[in-house]
Amino acid sequence: MTQLAERHETYVSAFDAFKRDAAFGRDALASARQAAFDRFISRGFPTTREEEWRFTNVAPIASATFERAPEAHVDAATLAKLSAGLPADTTIVVVNGRVASAARGLPAGVTLRTIRDARASELVAARPAGGTVFVDLNTAFFDDVVVLDIAPRAIVREPIHVLSIAVTGRTPILVSPRLAIVAGEQAQASIVESYATVGDGVAFVNATTDVHVAPGALLDHVKLQRQHDASFHLGGMFVRTGRGGTFTSQAVTVGGRIARNDIVSVLDGDGAECTLNGLYVAGGEALVDTHTTIDHAQPHCPSHEVYKGILTGRARAVFNGKIIVRQDAQKTDAKQTNKALLLTDEAQINTKPQLEIFADDVKCTHGAAIGQLDEDALFYLKARGISAIDARNMLIHAFAGDVLNGVRSDELRATAMALVEEKLGLPA
Amino acid sequence: MLLEIRDLRARAEGKDILKGLNLSVNAGEVHAIMGPNGSGKSTLARVLSGHPGYEVTGGSITFDGKDLLELEPEERACEGVFMAFQYPVEIAGINNTYFLKAALNAVRKYRGQQELDAVEFMQLARQKAKLLEMDQAMLNRSVNEGFSGGEKKRNEIFQMAVLEPRLAVLDETDSGLDIDALKIVSNGVNALRNHERAMLVVTHYQRLLNYIVPDFVHVLTDGRIVRSGGRELALELEEKGYGWVEPETTGARK
């Protein structure tokens, strides 16, 4: 216990210091922060003895000393670079967890609220029981919040980009971005959430995203995580979709020394639908972990999930796809696919589907395929005159493209592919 | 001489398959290679294309004066060797047109020719597609993905039409084709016959040779060519079966 307390000593003093900050808040927010922080201290960082963290050792995070990220500034040139190929007119920039600038004119039907004017309910993460300790850590330390409120029946065609930047320096920083998306009844919108780092210092980005898709609403979500290789990214997303609502998520991860995404999607109304797709690329010593839970709580809900990974160097990946079908969730139709391409002998993945089915009239399928590039396909391309390196690149492209084709915006899809190419050193 | 194979020996999975094969092919000639299952017909085709699953343990292959065995599969293709696969590979996510444009431009670059741009390529592709009665939809699909057996074989000959090889090796292109598809494929192949291009038609059955009429027929048994002749040899084989040539082989070995 002493050891645990010591390890968290820096967090305790940081939390005490934060209490004097205006952003800490009062009343309900202050007590929510205190409760979350107490839970974090009593549970501590997860260890590999816990089932959900068996293959993901967060010791490099737990043993480091981080300071709460100070306010920082990002110059226009850097901003332009990080916004390239992304929806520019509707960008909300978040620097070190604080909203730095908001789009001049958000599309009609979209309201942005921050910590200054967010509703009380929007400041408390809608976490399911048993969420990770990182959500509590975020609740304790978040400096600001981006609430995107899409009015009922609003049709927002242009994607809204929430660009979260961690500005690093000599001291490792803890950044706690927080995003809440509320899509009102029958609304339609598309949100891009992207994470980047500036400078080559260490950042521990501990992000949470809460999404509420009201009945009949359609929400398209894309997450691009392109932090540098000395950073950590812990992302927790919780989604609740109501009757006849549709939630679609494409998560593209190319950055971070340790990158973990925990996604919980609850299908909470008759006929609600969700798609969780993802593509991750990792090299060097990086570790990419994706834990998803699709919770079929109501009948007639389809869910689709395709996750693909490309690993080089000594990179490791973890994929855990849980599908819960509750007793009432008859006529559930759940499909899950997980594929990984290992480009080196040292790369490895631990993958596990986890089906918990309590209803009897359901369709659930899952499949996993791990392997190298298809030798037959490589030979076929070469036999037509295509060089070995081009043949390899074409196949990697095709593998990644399969997931990225789910990204609706052409511009976004091209940007995501460019990130993958850059990460793998492929020619465009 | 365009292709000169001398005493070729090859093995796969620890088993000797080609055991001293000799064959000479001039430009403009069509040679049929026939033989029973397991005689080494497809091995010959794959060794010519540089398939990594086969190990050449002896002999030589000279193509237009070059040592073919020294070349990588892609270099062979660029030199003008084309194999129509017995089992064309399905490649999800790579568009047929994109793939073929990349292939043609790789070949053109190797030969010092200017690469074709998208418009020039599409003009060429449409013209060649007509030859094989392929529609635009087939060109736009992923390479061979979800193609029927006949469509796959048509796609192979379509690729050959675009790449214009000097030596075309057809590895059991007739297998799995119904008579209509067989006619389309054969018409495509015949349209590509000319005095500069040689073809090696590997087949188990005489049927294909009714449509693609060879100049020479060779019978392959147990890794060697045991009999060569004109077109009439194929008809004789059809009538008498492969058993007819085998005793002679045994005799030849002694």
Can you give a write-up of this model?
- The complex is a heterodimer of chains A (428) and B (254).
- Helix content of chain A is 23%, strand content 38%.
- Chain A is α/β, with parallel strands linked by helices.
- In chain A, the strands form two sheets. In chain A, strands 1, 4, 5, 7, 8, 10, 12, 14, 16, 18 and 20 form an eleven-stranded mixed beta sheet that branches.
- In chain A, strand 2 and strand 3 (98-101) form a beta hairpin.
- In chain A, helix 3 crosses helix 7 (133-141) and helix 8 crosses helix 9 (388-404).
- Chain A is globular and about 70 Å long.
- The termini of chain A are far apart.
- The model of chain A has no long low-confidence stretch (mean pLDDT 93).
- Chain B starts with a strand and ends with a helix.
- Chain B is globular and about 55 Å long.
- In chain B, helix 2 packs across helix 3 (96-110) and helix 6 runs parallel beside helix 7 (179-191).
- In chain B, helix 7 links the parallel strand 9 (167-171) and strand 10 (198-203).
- Chain B contains nine helices and twelve strands.
- In chain B, the strands form three sheets. In chain B, strands 6-9-10-3-11-12 form a six-stranded mixed beta sheet, with helices on both faces. A four-stranded antiparallel beta sheet of chain B has the order 2-1-4-5, with helices on one face. In chain B, strands 7-8 form a two-stranded antiparallel sheet.
- Chain B has 254 residues and is of the alpha/beta class.
- The relative contact order of chain B is 0.18.
- Chain A binds chain B through residues 374-377, 379-388, 390-391, 394-395, 397-399, 401-402, and chain B through 49-52, 72-74, 76-78, 82-83, 85, 88-89, 91-94, 99-100, 102-104, 106-107, 110, 142-143, 159, 163.
